[in-house]
Amino acid sequence: MRIPWRVIGIFAAVWVVAAVVILWARAARPTPASLAAYIDKNPIADLAPAQRAKVIERVAAQLNKLNFDQRQELRKTRDDRRLFEQMTEEERRRFLDLTLPEGFRQLMLALNKMDPEKRKKLVQRALDDIEKDNPEVNERIDRVEVQKMLSQGMDSFYSEASADVKLDFAPVIEQIQRATQNMR
């Protein structure tokens, strides 16, 4: 009669440990809200360069742990934009180097999973946005950085996008190429 109680006790202990580990893992994983709160609590404007770098690298690491939808949710709040505007040009380059590859990878995964109809709407919206040719954006953009981002994006696109995604996004790629030729 003692053996079943021991077995039940062992199973209960294993489940308690598993529950604690799961809760700890969920708490450790960033969310858009937790990342926005971190950005709000850690403005970099008045920090020393070493402290600024630590905050920027922590934000980049947390941002890279968010999935595509969570990144979109964070962008809607514009909390990431406030941090980006506080950065120097060198810090911006570093931040983009840390976050763009993972962002492109997640974008390709999201596009691969997307329903074809929804993807076609996204393609049309992207084409419309490119055609607007916003002069304000053109004044703020460093051409070398744009070329670097496009290169990283294209590498990710060609290596990770499915054949259907490549076919659907062909007009966007062509329009981006035209737009970058006009930037030169």
Q: What does this protein look like?
A:
- By secondary structure, the chain is mainly α.
- The protein folds into three domains: about 30 residues; about 80 residues; about 70 residues.
- The longest helix is centred in the N-terminal third of the chain and has 27 residues.
- It is flat and about 75 Å long.
Short summary:
With 184 residues, the protein is an all-alpha fold. Helices cover 86% and strands 0% of the residues.
Strand content: under 5%
Helical stretch count? Answer: 10
User: What is the mean predicted local confidence, pLDDT?
Assistant: 75
The shape, in one word, is flat
Binned, the helix content reads over 70%
**Helix vs. strand class:** mainly alpha
Distance between the first and last residues' Cα: 83 Å
Number of domains: 3
Name the descriptors:
184 residues, mainly alpha, 10 helices, 86% helix
Topology:
Layout: H1 2-28, H2 32-41, H3 49-65, H4 68-77, H5 79-86, H6 89-113, H7 116-132, H8 135-140, H9 143-160, H10 163-183
